[in-house]
Design brief:
Layout: H1 4-19, H2 52-58
Region (Disordered): 20-70
Biased composition (Low complexity): 20-59
């Protein structure tokens, strides 16, 4: 029968192993990274309506709810 001190040492080693993240062996095959889609520039957004630029100018260039700095 193992001594209590030996049992505690084994238990401590097991707990320490559980806390460490698993490490893959160096010989493990690496998964190829997924190809990413090519980055395309976003198309400029059209105004919501033909009257939107005029409404924006009438408001002094501010959108609804936009902070005016005051």
């Amino acid at each position: 029968m193992p001594t209590p001190r030996a049992s505690l040492a084994v238990l401590g080693a097991r707990l320490a192993a559980l806390r460490r993240p698993p490490v893959a062996p160096a010989s493990a095959p690496r998964l190829p990274s997924a190809p990413t889609a090519p980055s395309t520039p976003a198309a400029p957004m059209a105004p919501a309506s033909p009257a939107a630029p005029a409404r924006l100018a009438a408001r002094g260039g501010r959108r609804p709810g936009q902070w005016d700095g005051a």
